[in-house]
Amino acid sequence: MARTRLRLGIDLDGVVADFNGGWTQLHNNEFGGRLTPDLVTSWDGLHTLGGFDDMEDFWAWARGNDERPSIFRHLDLLPGALDTLRALDAEGHRVVIVSTKPDWAVHETMHWLADNEIPTREVHLTFTKYLVDCDVYLDDAPGVLPELVEHHPDALVCRFVRPWNQPVAGAVDVRDWAEFHAIVTEQTPRSATGRAD
Question: How far apart are CA 75 and CA 23, in angstroms?
Answer without folding.
Answer: 8
